[in-house]
Amino acid sequence: MKKMDDNLISLYSSSDIKNRVEELGSEISEEYEKKEPIFIGVLNGSFIFMADLMRSLSIDCEMDFIKVRSYSGKKSSGTIQLLKDISADVKDRNIILVEDIIDTGLTIKFLRERLFGSSPKSIAIATLLYKPSVAKIDFKIDYIGFEIPQEFVVGYGLDYEQKMRHLNGLYMIKNDLSE
């Protein structure tokens, strides 16, 4: 593997991310005041974003997690595997589904449909990153941290083969890391 720093281009710094997450937290807090939403984070990628988003809120809320797999290396597999389901009862609840990134939209479509099957009051979607040029969805993404180009990104919870989640900024990979 090549030295990691030689292959990464900075996209957003930790302070850029912190400021944007705080803005999203304020917006969600205002819109969900006295509604006690349940935040459902999509593991593994959303865990850092979810933690920071939760700390930026000023409302009462709950959280849970769901885990799916849709990637192999840098490519979408085209299928979704449910690895861990939520444990909370979401019937008649306001759900905010928290994703790290919406790329093709396959995962978010799957999760949204699955959660609507539990009869929630509402479902909103919050994502740190959104790739509008490739997303094939027919519903609104309610809270978007940053829109990015069709590049593979790592850091702040996003990984390449389970590595680089620990980076405090977001980076594009410029070369194939397997070389």
| CATH architectural category | 3-Layer(aba) Sandwich
Query: What order do the strands of the largest sheet run in, or round the barrel if closed?
Result: 4-3-2-5-6-7
Round the Cα radius of gyration to an integer and report it. Answer: 16 Å
Low-confidence stretches: none
**Number of helical elements:** 3
Order of helical and strand elements: EHEHEEEHEEEE
Mean pLDDT: 91
Quickly name the level 1 CATH class.
Alpha Beta
Please give the alpha-carbon distance between the first and last residues.
6 Å
Helix content: 10-25%
State which percent range the strand residues make up.
Answer: 25-35%
Q: What would a concise description of this structure say?
A:
The chain contains 3 helices and 9 strands, in the order βαβαβββαββββ. It is α/β, with parallel strands linked by helices.
Question: Can you put this structure into words, describing what you see?
Answer:
The chain has 179 residues and is α/β, with parallel strands linked by helices. It has one domain (15-73, 81-149): Rossmann fold (3-Layer(aba) Sandwich), CATH 3.40.50.2020. Helix content is 21%, strand content 34%. The protein has three helices and nine strands, in the order βαβαβββαββββ. The chain has helices at residues 14-31, 47-55, 106-116, and strands at residues 8-12, 38-43, 62-72, 75-84, 94-102, 122-130, 143-147, 153-154, 170-173. A six-stranded mixed beta sheet has the order 4-3-2-5-6-7, with helices on both faces. Helix 1 (14-31) packs across helix 2 (47-55). The termini are close together. 28% of the residues are buried. The model has no long low-confidence stretch (mean pLDDT 91).
